[in-house]
Amino acid sequence: MIRYISITLLIAIASLPAAAQQYLSRNTQIHFFSDAPMEKIEATNPKGVTIINVANATIQSSVLMKGFQFRKALMQQHFNETYIESDKYPKASFTGKVVNTAMQLTISGNYTWQIEGELTMHGKTNPIETKALVQIDGAIIKMSCSFNILLSDYAIAIPSLVKDNVSNKVRVDITITDVKPM
Amino acid sequence: MRKKIGLSIGIIALTILALGLYWYNRPVEGVANKKPQLTLEANDLIQAYTINETDANSRYLGKLVELHGSLAGKDKGPDNAITIMLAGNVPPGFVSCLLATNSNAETDALKSGDSLVIKGICTGYLFPDVQLNQCIIVNTPQKND
Question: Where are the domains of chain B?
Fold first, then answer.
């Protein structure tokens, strides 16, 4: 009898719908902005990809450098050829871990995740700490975060001729939408 | 005479300045009137990237490519930007084509399985998709009707 009960229980447990462990967003918008006395520089790439792994509370966002769209053609060309060298380093990626709370994406509400991780860009890796705002409304999940980086940390040199046109400090804004179970 | 030379130099200088400012501030040029550097099947592009990304980048990165493929899905971003997903045989990957124009009657009419010809700039591979941007739709079944 006990055996039957345990077998029934085992089957019941096995057939429970497993909560998704991995989530994917193909619509991760990366925007950056730098303010210098002569020129404001900003660009957006709406097609970043984010993979969230609930089991180990990690989040990974990547973006293709050639996908950044500028208003001015010359800025886009200089970004790709002189600064970020997108032929040599086609991607940037951030890998982080949520450290302040247990990660979950199933209970509706607004949450703040403290994320510690690192950003790899232009062949250099540096630590990043940021707070992400997470909005869960049923199956609709949206996240956003911002942080500042220094171009000098990523070996991106600013030619002395345009020192006043390009700021060393750049603000990065990330908005993650369309988060779906993988 | 001297006045005339001065005036001419002034006009030339102003023209150069105006041209320079225009060149400096010119917007990113679209791909509509450009000839594609390569033409291939969407699936061949996905396959090239899944087999060897570095090698595929050396052939396709930053190039204006014309792709033939079938529509696997379309997706409207927060700012009405449309992404067309072209199918391949290497799931879960697609070719993700970010259109240069926002949604309109033409993109609204597209259905899953439609064979499309799309022209755009290959920006590389981001698992699980190959990405193109500044895309325009060259041909749709609706256009052939």
Answer: 38-144
Query: Inter-chain contact A64–B124, Cβ cutoff 8 Å?
Result: yes
User: Which residues of chain B register pLDDT less than 50?
Assistant: none
What residues of chain A lie within 8 A of the CB of B75, using their CB? Answer: 26-27, 178
**Which residues of chain B have a CB within 8 Å of the CB of A176?**
none
Domain B38-144 is in which class?
A: mainly beta
Residue of B nearest to A28 (CA): B77
CA distance A98 to A54: 10
Count of the separate structural domains present in chain A? 1
CATH of the domain at A147: 2.40.128.110
Chain A: give the shortest CA distance to residue B105, in Å.
22
**Would residue A95 count as lying in a domain?**
yes
Complex ipTM? 0.87
Q: What is the secondary structure of A126-164 as a DSSP string?
A: EEEEEEEEEEEETTEEEEEEEEEEEGGGGT-PPPGGGTT
- Look at residue B141 in the predicted model and tell me its pLDDT: 79
